[in-house]
Amino acid sequence: EKMASRPVVSVYSQSKERSTVPLAMPAVFVSPIRPDLVQFVHTNMNKNHRQAYAVSSKAGHQCAAASWGTGRAVARIPRVHGSGTHRAGQGAFGNMCRGGRMFAPTKTWRRWHRKINVNQRRYAVASALAASAVPALVMARGHHINKVPEVPLVISDDLQTLSKTQKAIETLKSIGALDDVEKVKRSRAIRRGTGKARNRRYVQRRGPLVIYNEDKGLVKALRNVSGVDTCCVTRLNLLQLAPGGHLGRFCVWTKSALQRLDSLYGTQTRRASEKKG
């Protein structure tokens, strides 16, 4: 299945004025859209920033205990030595005992990370880029793009020079992307479960992904805007392009970033000049 095969894409100024000279649509936007591959790669990539955890190797074994053996009409579980206290005679060590160790105690040498084939990773990123150029998929993912003039949305390189958050918000409003940011603000809620006590108190939706070629203050201007992520075109990340493994992230491109895609991902007739293999 191939999508977004329009020959050209328009460039807009920060005030939503359309340029008279359109850009050729990069070939990566007609890549096959493979939700199965994207979900597989995302699942495995998402495991690569986990930190190891384990229970103490001593837990549940820090008391002296031995089985009473047979003939006393009690289970053969090890029992705490001594007398004169409630603890004496209680079962110990086993995972079924109060104060015992867990079954199969967790170890730090678990296989936490996953290797993923380079071809699969590149294919997944190309699929995610292609899906980001299909308005139906972007809307299906939950993005509010009714006021956006075109998808993919390309803005002139002046965007990269923004250094003030207020100016960045004004630009997002003028190009029709602020509705998606407001959606993120409305969605902020306290996380269910224990995670709220583990430094992950809030959850919220994802907003626009701003992709630039050269940062001249843009990252700093947008870093405090709810839901807005920024990414350099040479460092496109599937975890940002398809959060949760779901295709169709709303992307805002700078002109030079979009023009660089053919050299990064190649075309139907030319290999990628900026990548090996």
Describe the model.
The protein starts with 7 loop residues before the first strand and ends in a 12-residue tail after the last helix. Helices cover 25% and strands 10% of the residues. β9, α6 (218-222) and β10 (229-232) form a beta-alpha-beta unit. It has nine helices and eleven strands. With 277 residues, it is α/β, with parallel strands linked by helices.
From the spread of the alpha carbons, the general shape counts as elongated
> What class do helices, strands and sheet pairing give?
alpha/beta
Helical stretch count? 9
Number of strands: 11
For the biggest sheet, the summary is:
5 strands, parallel
Report the helical percentage: 25-40%
Low-pLDDT sequence parts: none
What percentage of the residues does DSSP assign to strands (E)? Answer: 5-15%
How far apart, in Å, are the first and last alpha carbons? 25 Å
**Average pLDDT:** 94
What's the gyration radius in Å?
27 Å
Order of helices and strands: EEEHEEHHEHHEEEHEHEHH
Strand order of the largest sheet: 2-6-11-9-10
